[in-house]
Amino acid sequence: xxxxxxxxxxxxxxxxxxxxxxxxxxxxxxxxxxxxxxxxxxxxxxxxxxxxxxxxxxxxxxxxxxxxxxxxxxxxxxxxxxxxxxxxxxxxxxxxxxxxxxxxxxxxxxxxxxxxxxxxxxxxxxxxxxxxxxxxxxxxxxxxxxxxxxxxxxxxxxxxxxxxxxxxxxxxxxxxxxxxxxxxxxxxxxxxxxxxxxxxxxxxxxxxxxxxxxxxxxxxxxxxxxxxxxxxxxxxxxxxxxxxxxxxxxxxxxxxxxxxxxxxxxxxxxxxxxxxxxxxxxxxxxxxxxxxxxxxxxxxxxxxxxxxxxxxxxxxx
Length: 317
Hints:
Distance between the termini: 12 Å
Number of strands: 9
Strand order of the largest sheet: 7-6-5-8-9
Structural class: alpha/beta
Number of helices: 11
Number of domains: 2
């Protein structure tokens, strides 16, 4: 049996694969927007979604994407599974592989879970492909890819056009965000000028590779930006519960119409969800489809995940 292929992180993608997945996601998006159906390239394939953390968008979009490509999909009910009888994550993974899993979409809290699962799959000789659907605060590759695809679509560009000359401000809880980690990697690869903004305690000590600047002053951070991505404060990942109140956070770091006015005239706002309205973003701005790409991100999530599954399927054959 040939070695399976996986999607663990954006950095591991070659430039060719990175551009191919983005281009195919935009093609799938056109199919979706036209109300057409894609070819069932995953017919008779079996996909399990194994999520050890709660999820709405990612879990459902992987299910919808696989079903639209013709796959059989089972969402593992972790809350009612043998995990609560003491079964290890590796044993659960291998159980799903033994049931014939072609694809395993895995979300986990602990760092190293994705690689541990792949090592166990390889050791037992299964051909199951693992897709990282979010691992702790380390990364969320399909979210980073779909965010770039959404931006390309909104700006009328293609991956070949790149995002050179575009400024993206990512604001909020950077320190605990796997979304931020993958967004930085994805946007960096297309030449985006990236700024990070938020409270000092929620920013890295130094600018990561590909980031132009760090800001505690939100007005400064959004000035002249083309895209502003707000992130949720992830209290569940904090060592303690010390943080600004919702009102304080919104006043100092939230995105609203007044703050958006400091960006470029046609700037767009983004948010990976779930949103805390009135905290990291004003609700009326989130619903303004002339400025908000939030709904488009959700739609692009299905298109991008179809592209990832198709790409993995091509590598299997």
